[in-house]
## 1
Amino acid sequence: MSKRDYYEILGVGKSASQDELKKAYRKLAMQFHPDRNPGNKEAEENFKEAAEAYEVLSNEDKRSKYDRYGHSGLKGGQDFHSYQNVNDIFSHFSDIFGGAFGGSSIFDEFFGGGTSQRTRQRPTGIPGSDLKVTLRLTLEEIATGTTKKVKIKKYNVCETCGGSGAKSSAGFKTCSLCNGTGEIRQVSKSIFGQFVNIAACSNCSGTGKVISDPCIKCSGDGRVYNETTIKINVPAGVYDNSYMTLRGEGNSGKNGGTAGDIIVVFEELSHEYFTRDGDNIIYELYISFPEAVLGTEIEVPTLNGKAKLKIEPGTQPGKFLKMREKGIQHLNSHGAGDQLVKINIHVPKNVSSKEKEMLKELEKMPNIKINE
């Protein structure tokens, strides 16, 4: 069964803004939410379908691939989800619904009477921040893919204390704010009833303990700032200003918090010979007038070295000759683009007296002279 168009699923146009996409997805998610449609498999599939569409279109890189190649452009993508379990959707898009897709029914929470308790998994520690790395690539590297080693400075887990921040296992005391529970309960009232919101304790970051005897090397932070070498496997066919995410390789979190990501942004360097057009590359070739008339075989540069190109007799200026699969490998499918060679006629600025005479004689020839 063929996949439906993602824009059609969300009911938006191809020029829809991020806000329009988010509003459309919220509306569908509320309509097909499992709590509203218990036991309805069709509604559950619609719920998954809407989540898949929103995940792609809300991400600029994935949306660009989808707009260019359709569903085939997303096959094999490292960060693409095909949702099998609705709980994965709740977790992935909790930022949109503010935790409402958690343990209790969303409709109990917003429309039910009495007391509703909103809970969420208590985080441990403070998450590390993301890092951005700009990677400059030549067309040759983009054409076939490459591996780069880059030195960066970031926060890494302190080896002395193992990231705990304490000098020893006895270097902790119970948090006085949450009394060791790691949670702070906040009660609020509304026209729908009383709500109890459980949040991680800000004093101990949800651990229930605070450091009393800090590690000497990291001063209780649990991290040290130093230089690290990372390896980046660049797939073939990436575009200028596109990016990839290295999950969990950013700054380490504090006190056991999860590590951030590294966002690698690709910058395409200009080339001496070629310009890029999608996965094709264009080369401007200048030949003489006799070569264009009589035909010839010329050696031209490619991304993989020199190659011979046959020029047929009578080739016209401005014509593009195709060298198949001499371009850039496709990002998400097999094969490669082409090298397109544009034919230009070289017109000399200076000629000798003998050459002028020969050209004047040539001009009179019936096949050379332009017929009015």
## 2
Amino acid sequence: MLRAIEETVEYIKRKTENFKPEIGIILGTGLGGLVKEIEIEHQLMYSNIPNFPISTLEFHSGKLIFGTLNGKKIIAMQGRLHYYEGYSMQQITFPVRVMKGLGIENLIVSNAAGSLNPEFKKGDLMIIDDHINLQPDNPLRGLIESELGPRFPDMSQPYKRDIITKALEIAKSVDIKCHKGVYVAVSGPNLETKAEYKYLRLIGADAVGMSTVPEVIVANHAGLPVFAISVLTDEGFPEDLQPFDLDEILAAAAKAEPKMTEILTRLISEL
């Protein structure tokens, strides 16, 4: 893996004139609007980058964006990768390794998720302060290159508390409702049954999704501070469960996305 990371990093440096990002951003389903705020200097399609997996979802652009946002040099993934697409956990998280190799000092992750907490409604934002991993594999399994990080990384604070505090203060200052909670990652691609929603709530989750946790594990392994935020696009309340509708999910993400962008653009200037 180390050789592949180095090869990809060198390719990107050549194509971006040695662009040096400070912050990495992973944009989730329906949440690509933040790109409009970036002063773009370079763009690379995933399909043109050596060793880079390609997003198979038609609503994910599959581009790496390089530019400036609120005075910070950033690299943004417009379109993430999921375990349910058939990739291995190490493939899903390969972009995080590459961003680390390019020099990022903080990682911001966004996603669209389903609410499990009756107090968290569709269209709300939730800052992730902890997670539960129910995905069937781990991106660190079998990894032996000590250059990438320790064999047994600590996960007592997977999401940086001081960044969470800043984000909550920003949300309050601009009058945006923003919760804090626990995200549970499942493999997908099917949605959950009523019994599964009950179980996930019982074990302490406030929101459920099919991403984020693998990238967060690898970022922690690599020593990167992480901030993650969910746009709650549907409600997994067993007593009133509605059939899944992808168009409604994407519409809910698009409607809530400006609130997330407002928080992130302000937060980035303070990192």
## 3
Amino acid sequence: MNKSIVGFIVLFASFSCQERGIRSVPIIQPSHQKEEYSIKDSVHFLQGYPAMVGDSLINVVVEIPTGTLEKWEVNKENGYLELPEIDGIRRVVDYLGYPGNYGMVPQSLQDAAVGGDGDPLDILILGPPLSRGSLVKCRIIGIIRMLDNGELDDKLIALPAKGYLENIRSMENLEADYPGIIEILTLWFENYKGKGQVEIKSIGEKEEAFQVLQEAIEAYQNQR
């Protein structure tokens, strides 16, 4: 078996485990109205929360918990968290489950005018599963720069502000303490949509990630 695949299985098992001295990750669970394929918050998921919390932390809305396959996403128009359909079929990833909690940064935009996909900035929170629709304060450690069918589709990499891997502050730090994780993440993103759909351009540190974040926040503000 490919060593990277073996590594992914080991990584996924460790991230899903609630042992190893992991403290509870603080989350905000808004007052939700839940239906089978839709979650409505008391405020608009995209518009209702600021991107930044102080100077160094960000808000993240969790769309897809670690290890799951259903591709929930925030509807930019109505602000609900939904499991959309394509040709009458609910969106499900045809691959291994997500290697972290996938979500979006509120009040951000990957601007289509400069090659982005026109959606909020995506982010992957490493760690055990967090509740779908929860709001999590996170610290950015880096970024995976990538193209999805020719469009910019960058993925910020983050950790919860408290409660998990609090000693990790950068991608370099992550790779040194947990060898192979970055390779596993890039392997997953290269293949989760099928062969040849996604191209990994580069791996960046948190300084580059914050630059991309600031550009996405400005793009969102400029469109309003």
## 4
Amino acid sequence: MHVLIICESFPPETKSASTLYYQLAESLVKKNHRVTVVTRMPKYNLADGATTKNVPRRENLDGIDIHRLQTPTVARNIPLIRGFEHFLLAFIFFWGAFAIKDVDVILVYSPPLPLGIAGHYLGKIKKTPVVVNVQDLIPQGIIDIGLLKNKFLIKLSKMMERFVYQKADYLTVPSDGHVTYLLKKGAAPGRAATVHNWVDVNIIKPAAKTNAFSQQYKLGNKFIVSFAGTIGFGQGLSVVIEAAEILRNQPDILFVLVGDGVEKKKLQDRAESKHLNNVLFIPTQPVSIYPQILHASDVCLVTLRKELTTPTVPGKLASILAAGKAVITSLPLGGDTPKIVDKFQCGICVKPDDSQELAKAVLKLYNNRQLGEQMGLNGRRAAEQSFSRDSAVFAYEEIFQNLLKGWNHV
């Protein structure tokens, strides 16, 4: 089976999508499938040693045939310009994938949403079934947090959303709440399924707290509360700075924020203006270092802004569980992430933007280390049972094979 994967980000970029899709592609190759990836030339969050100039446009990496396309660089902190970039990506990716022959099934990563449109027309031309993996529910997610306000653009985005969901031969999503949402937006019953964002439990697993990362940044014996990932509009990380201010008289508790993004400078300025010595900002780290960040932590944070009403399960959750760390979530309590945390008893859930409750949760785990350790053990068990790489690869393989057996491209 020849699987064509279309995704915006792929190694050496270090985004979670890059890691997930590299692992999926690598596993499919190991199962004797042919995999071609169409992606863009890397631009952001590059792994150590990688530059925009030393990455080949065509490469075979671990059996994966990679086609990297040149795309324009735009101001990504301006939503309107970034939206225009997404349309350009769809056009460029369509033509980049057009020449690839003998494709059996197409897998598209969304967002950006226009890639789903490009995938649909590629499938039409190639007479090939198309699976769209919907990770973020766009446009509703960016409407909720105030990044998209123009009525015309909202209407246009919702039309695109309905088109993608209705035209895809199959849709995969990271949580059951996503399935319900997609059905309301026009997805055909029986053509959407949950495939949890996975983690390689053989790579990310419990390990000693002291490691090269903790030593490099002199974390010592502090009680580490970490966030690792994009520091952007949607993460709602101002609540972490506020919680740190509440706990400023707890000298053993240190908040560590690892990553970069459009909101980082604002958060740094806020922490500095409050003279907070219990907040440490660290730049984005290579993928190979990410497990060490988790190991060095006592508790890990998953945060989103309260305005976000769409169901969501941030990809970092699976890695936190696999590392055997307790998690504190600060996001809408009715969403899918708190349901997972409650189901597996692997952490504490607090309301988003509630710094008092977040501070209480941190203090509770600081004062009761045994509780945190038990939550970590529960999380590790959950990762092995429900979030493993092998189970996700098996699910995709089964979806592809069922499409090829009995479905005609619409």
